[in-house]
Specification:
By secondary structure, the protein is α+β, with helices and mostly antiparallel strands. The protein has three domains: 115 residues; 111 residues, Elongation Factor Tu (Ef-tu), domain 3; 43 residues, Membrane-bound Lytic Murein Transglycosylase D, Chain A (Roll). 41% of the residues lie in helices and 19% in strands. It is built from five helices and nine strands; from the N terminus they run ααββββαββββααβ. β6 and β7 form a beta hairpin. It starts with 12 loop residues before the first helix and ends with a strand. InterPro entries: Dit-like_N, LysM, LysM_dom_sf. This is LysM domain-containing protein. It comes from Lactobacillus amylovorus subsp. animalium.
Amino acid sequence: MSLCPNYKVIKSEYHRKLATAEKNAQRRYNRAKKKFDKANSSYHKISRSVQKDAGKKRRKKETTAQYNKRQSRLKRERRAEKSAKRRTSRARGSMNKAKRALSKAKGKVTKKNLSDIVSTVHYHEKYWNNQGNCAIYPSDGKSGAGSIVFISPTDSENESGSNNITSWAVDKGAPRSSYSRVNSDSISVAGILTGENGDKAESQWNLLNNWRMNNRELTYRGDIYNKHLLISNLERDYSTGYVDNLKVTITFTFVRSAEITTAGKRHKKSSKSSKTTRGNRHKKYSSLTIKSGDTLWAISKKYHKSVSWIAKVNHIKNPNRIYPGNKIRVR
């Protein structure tokens, strides 16, 4: 898809080399994976046969010659099992090496694609103002500079955000920020898709709609700049009198990526039910060491806490008796 009249995206020789390197790396990885799968399947087949034969006991009517023959066959199978295991290990190493090379090749292509996109956007801002200077394109870098949609906003670009705030009572003195969680941030843009003809504007609309249906993570570059957006709403206005252009309204929602980690060991689940609350409650506590002459009343005045609160959180049965050297929580 051309970006604007009389302008075509031309891939450099370096870009073609990167694409070729990625294809070759993909082929090498596919071959290595196929070889590993074959070796792994052969190893497991031999291993099952060894386990089956090793578990057999000597039959009552089995002669010594028959028993020795079976044991000899079992030894050969064990040697074959070890050999198959070594082949599988080597094949796994080759596959992992090819996988790392493929990942590196893809990273170079992605980096080059994003660089081409940024260069194209800057070029467009300088020479093609009639088509709008606000750019929308995929953030993953898998598509090149040909997958950019330029839009000319007719209204201002709007950005909004909202938070979920807990509505129940919280401890006195606890940080209120721990009871708030970001709900969503959104960007709304109303503008015109400009094309050489109706088909060009329609193709840009279809590209936006395809990104919406496939939940493609996008970058919006205009007065507002954000890299992690999904199209949550897409509308077109049929009532306007544009011939070759389309008036559209796009609503983006900011998405946050979560890092998922897995535990190395399985932990036994507790039968005791736990209450799930909204928001992140990571509290920071302060403590002090009691000195001779200290009283809970004096400590409560210094740290703006009630005597009953300090006694409760520190499990002090008698507030009138505290002992030097003990540590207590004061916040």
